[in-house]
Fold this protein.
Amino acid sequence: AQSVTQPDIHITVSEGASLELRCNYSYGATPYLFWYVQSPGQGLQLLLKYFSGDTLVQGIKGFEAEFKRSQSSFNLRKPSVHWSDAAEYFCAVNFGNEKLTFGTGTRLTIIP
Amino acid sequence: GAVVSQHPSWVICKSGTSVKIECRSLDFQATTMFWYRQFPKQSLMLMATSNEGSKATYEQGVEKDKFLINHASLTLSTLTVTSAHPEDSSFYICSALTAPNQPQHFGDGTRLSIL
């Protein structure tokens, strides 16, 4: 069955520390992969996407993600977080039918 | 580019009334739009796919007579919650595609509260 998993419901990191948010999917082929960020009461903003090619993709706001086919993963990273990065992060997958399947989200808290 | 506008951002109404939410693509034409529902502290659940000029495709478990979707033009899709009840209170978000298999671009959502 096709599914998307974000194992971490809530992550707390110190400002300036590095960040990695995990995302795994279940699918027989390579899907289209996305990371979105949502601030409270707002819609979703696209951080980055992977369709094909270079498995390390760069996004906005200093984020990057790496696609690992062998692990069916698409983890989001940032070398140094800022207080403004506090938000909800969603991994989303297009399994080839235009629809997006979202993970359950990871809430990121930044401590000074 | 690829701006999606959703209106209203917040609506409160009495039980039994109908509420219409608009989703507009401001700087592109969107043949396909999507409507999602999000409960507090939860993920987005796809309700339906809206295609310009044709009937919407609803996900399993979504009442099509309750949630009426109209996509009459390439820049506008509307979601009407008919005879709304408190259990329909939620955050509704729309998105639009600029082209097949491209990222979806999201509106800012509508907070619907039914009293």
User: Anything to note?
Assistant: Chain A has a mean pLDDT of 95. The interface with chain B takes residues 32, 34, 36, 41-46, 49, 51, 90, 94, 98-100, 102-105, 107 of chain A (CB under 8 Å).
